[in-house]
Amino acid sequence: MGSVAAVIVTFNRKHLLGKCLEAVRAQTRPYERLFIIDNASTDGTPEFLAAQGLVDPSTEYVRMPVNSGSAGGFHEGMRRAYEAGFEWLWLMDDDGCPAPDCLERLLSFSTNLDVIGPAVVRPDDPTRLTWKLRSVRPGGRFRTWRSITSLADLRSQAAAEVYEGIAALFNGVLIRRQVPEAIGFVLADLFSSSGVTKTNTSCAARQPVSGLVSPSTPSTTTPTSSHGIPAGGSSTTCIETRCTSTGDMDGWRCRHR
What we know:
Blueprint lengths: L3 E7 L3 H12 L7 E6 L6 H7 L7 E5 L5 H15 L4 E6 L2 E3 L3 H6 L7 E7 L6 E9 L5 E9 H6 L5 E3 L1 E4 L1 E6 L1 H6 L8 H15 L13 E2 L5 E4 L5 E9 L13
Parallel strand pairs: 1-2, 1-4, 2-3, 6-14
Antiparallel strand pairs: 4-11, 5-12, 5-14, 6-11, 7-8, 9-14, 10-13
Helix pairs in contact: 3-7
């Protein structure tokens, strides 16, 4: 299945980051390397990580000189993981809490898919999706004015636990290295939603990426800046693989430089 590098971007949410790290380290299929990208936090994140013993030999802690936003953080993390030679990049914000079997289940779909994402659900109500997903017709076209808001709706429209055509980035999404090889990393000069949108647009236009997975065991996230973006029918959500997220974006201030 190939080696996996986890990439977590954080800014001024050290306690959420601690919970995220606990969940990531409790995976039934361990990652090989972890990159923590700290966007110049001012809340004592480095001291917190040291005091809690959360930076071990398998972890690379990277402190950015300035807050480069979600896009800048993911650009840096993806670049480092890619240049280190990892086959898969597992991306999430600091408020994400993947279910214990999240990574294992995502990898179980890796034979035919290049982008595999879990269903992102609310921690206070795991029957609801944190971000609604656009309803997609076979072939990748959107259904006008129709969205999926609950896990039950997502299940009803998924075939073999996979909902093709759309996914929520970046809360637990697993990306094969051939994707950034083809389209590049998240654009560092854009912030949060802009960077995510640009990445998905590039996927749709230049790379036949397939498959996002949604969890059977939910993963939880106190949401940051993930958005469901269409990828031309190439992205997929796997219904029975989960990550929870509240969708709270207080940790990020959207800006375009």
